[in-house]
Amino acid sequence: xxxxxxxxxxxxxxxxxLKAVNEGAEALVRGLSAVxxxxxxxxxxxxxxxxxxxxxxxxxxxxxxxxxxxIMDGSSLRAGAVGSVRGVKNPVSLARRVMDRTxxxxxxxxxxxxxxxxxxxxxxxxxxxxxxxxxxxxxxxxRAIQALIDCGVAKExxxxxxxxxxxxxxxxxxxxxxxxxxxxxxxxxxxxxxxSALDVKGNFAAGASxxxxxxxxxxxxxxxxxxxxxxxxxxxxxxxxxxxIRGEENMRLGGLTRRVCDLMGESASAEQATNKVxxxxxxxxxxxxxxxxxxxxxxxxxxxxxxxxxxDSISVGFREEGxxxxxxx
Length: 329
Hints:
Distance between the termini: 28 Å
Radius of gyration: 19 Å
Shape: globular
CATH superfamily of the largest domain: (Glycosyl)asparaginase
CATH architecture of the largest domain: 4-Layer Sandwich
Strand content: 15-25%
Number of strands: 12
Number of domains: 2
Strand order of the largest sheet: 4-3-2-6-5-1-11-12
């Protein structure tokens, strides 16, 4: 079986995607598993501050970094995920430990953080007590808060700190927060990263990781840690993962990556499946998916993404046995 790997992210940083794909491909060349390749590829993007995953995550409305990630093994259908975790350098590796070391699938919040702290005492891949906030993201957060004040709907934001959380929740309940988010959409990038892989043994894997966006309200969990939404893998079908799809819509549609895999299980190619699911999202919710936001590998080892539609694009990188890296944006 020929190996293959594909990754995507909402960025124009071609070097970052290239590095991530190469790290995953090198693992596959060495005979490591598809799960290893996905973890290494996503870790590479989590360690690169240009991506909104791991280092460089966006800061939410309470000034916090809360990260989500998932990973899935198509050979066993085992999966692991974490949601709303703080201080973990590589949430995708923590998600893998949930899969490998527990009988659970999803751990969130303080429970996931305590799990990480225990692992960190003897597992070098898990680093805790880590501050993901870069100077650039701190400035972005400050602009976002100022934007709320300039709109006149959150004058109390920069007042006494105890009032901030209450004010934001009030805006959310009153339906005002989303209007501000939409108005200042350039400050709320959806920077999810994802990867899917096929190894030489014919096993598939997929994963996703994100830090949400600048205007996210704490407690919100998107599609990245939800199996079948952010990523899905099944040896009987293939693997699929997402970046730059708003999690709420992905969840309302019942999980787009599972839908892609279902179509590939019925003999659709990766390209056909991702484009058909994109058409479904447009038809059902009038949701326009960016080109490259859905990536997949089918049972024949062919990589594909939703590139047939007229929409903005995000970066996609892939590499197959015998073929150098291709980058599309």
